[in-house]
Design brief:
The chain has about 325 residues and is α/β, with parallel strands linked by helices. About 35% of the residues lie in helices and about 35% in strands. Helix 8 packs across helix 9. The relative contact order is 0.10.
Amino acid sequence: MRSKLILLGVCLFCLGGCMPKTKVIEEIQLIQALGYDYVNEEEFRGVAGTQITLPGEESLPESEIFTATGKTSRMIRKKIQTESSKTLVEGRIGLLLMNKELAEQGIYHFINTLERDSMIGRDIHLAIAEETSLEILSGDYNLDITVFEYLNELMEESNKDIFPETNLHTVLYQYYGDGMDLFLPIMDKKKDRVFVIGLALFKDDVLVHQLDVKEASIFKLLYERFRGGYYIIQVDPDTHVSVESVSAKPSYEIYEDNTGIHVGIHVDITGLVSEKEQIDTSKERNLHKIQEAGIRELKEHMTTLIATFQELGIDLWALVIELEAKLDI
């Protein structure tokens, strides 16, 4: 009994010594977004978008930007901390931006830095800045929320209807997965707004190609199950219809014959036809005409996209793994 009491006392002492240090919200600055921009072959610029909570119940949080240049993320963060009179805390980072020029050199260093930081959640959004992350994070968008909340909401809405879902978890899975390449949305600032303008495609960790919004929306049909997309179908030269609330369910078939190994992608698509003033959808033959036009148009775009991926030598589905498992290669 005595030995048990002594052991219990030691355990309580250890737990008491591990109590976390309490931080008062007014004494810290929460980093809500990080950005990295290319400077030269040896250095890059780091941008920290922070939120300050002012004293008073009715005070709205304010945004502040810090920048520094260095050769490593750790060096940049130390420099940034010297600019702030408050302790910078990374626990609420929701967005990482890397500019296009930097992504063309490789983004492994930045992904690896996030992966090793236990304070950063796996649901953080990652994106490529068309120009610079500084331009986007320091913008004045005349909103009643912080810049970083605005950008995160923009990412979430874009992922619902147009772009395939991405976050740190999916990027790590794609990067470390055998034979799999990753992709990230591209952001661009125009006047007082930010737009998601395309999808960056990577080979290993290097940006090699980008899709525009239309191409990205077609890729989403091929890549994942979702509901809520919006597409315009050209029925004939003078007739277009809008199809909304689109539901897509892609599936893959792998088979081998005397000509080689083949992968087929089948996509079940349903949607509601709207903006149909030019065509009477109460008639069965017109609905069939819209269906045939949609299949023809989407198949053409999908075939072109897949040919582009083949030319680039990238695999966004990890089909090599599927092939090996299916055919026991």
